[in-house]
Amino acid sequence: MFEYDFLNGKTRIETILNDSNEIEEKEKVPTEKKFTYHNGYYAWVTAVFVDIKESTKLFTENRKASTSRIIRSFTSEIIEILRNDDNLREIGIRGDCVYAIYTTSTPEENYEIASKTFYINTFLEMLNILLENRKMNKIVAGIGVSTAKELVVKAGREGSGINNLVWIGKAVTYASKFSSIANRDGYKPIIFSESFYESMINVMCMINEGKNPKSWFSKDSLNELGTFYNGNVVKSEFYEWIEGGMKNE
After folding, report:
1. Which of 72, 145, 173, 175 has its CA 20 to 30 A from that of 46?
2. What gap in Å lies between CA 92 and CA 95, rounded to an integer?
3. Any long-range contacts for 201-205 (C-beta under 8 Å, 24+ apart)?
4. Which residues, listed in sequence order, are joined to residue 10 by a DSSP beta bridge?
């Protein structure tokens, strides 16, 4: 039977608490190999979360084999859209949610992340048609994005091989919360934090000159989340292909 060695545990904790833990402020989060158990970074972080709504009901209404195909289809292409970026620092799956964390410090870099969410929003249109064609239940998902300066540290048990980066701040927390309220209660499928929207919107306007992208978003606020912007933006070429019957040729 396992017994916890609390005497050595106390020694380890005191070593950690007495550590100098150098925190370096940077524009960008370095790659993971730069992290040790004795340092940390305070830098710009942008997080994206894509959350399936009412997943318990969705999956219980489908057979196990159908459920596995639905969740694999959902995660596969969202990961494909999110993963190809030099600024990516972490990507993964939490239950019924796919998430990615980037280090972005310019409006252009944040617009690239916004563009990924538009691709995801359009992909979900394609996925739902393919599910409907197979008489499977459609997916409703919310997409949340937030940017902020965060403290990032490596945490775990030194020497155990069990560790991970921990993101401490508003970006990851708010992106997760935005994804949970997006596409429900009258909110549109994509929600951007105020800081993220204000960072990327001028770039979006330049790329879409004459189209007034600001009109594609609605401004809202909640006490616990502050001001945010929500919209239902799609990639036009991709969407038109879907509307045209998704022909392979």
Report:
1. 72
2. 10
3. 202/107, 203/107, 203/108, 203/110, 203/111, 204/111, 204/114
4. none
pLDDT by residue (tens digit) across 18-43? 887 788 888 899 888 888 888 888 99
* Burial degree of 107 (CB within 10 A; 0-12, 13-18, 19+): middle
Task: Specify whether the CB–CB gap between 152 and 171 falls below 8 A.
Answer: no
Nearest to 233 by CA among 208, 210, 209: 208
- Look at the pTM and tell me if it is higher than 0.85: yes
DSSP state of 86: T
Query: Is the dihedral angle over the CA atoms 32, 168, 225, 179 positive or is it negative?
Result: positive
Q: Distance between alpha carbon 8 and the CA centroid of its chain, in Å?
A: 38
Q: How many residues does the chain have?
A: 249
As a CATH number, domain 20-243 is 3.30.70.1230
Contacts 24+ apart (CB under 8 A), 32-39: 32/89, 32/154, 32/165, 35/152, 35/153, 35/154, 35/165, 36/154, 37/154, 37/156, 37/158, 37/163, 39/153, 39/154
Quick: pLDDT tens for 97-155: 999 999 998 999 999 999 999 999 999 999 999 999 988 888 899 999 999 999 998 88
- How far apart CA 80 and CA 87 sit, in angstroms, is 15
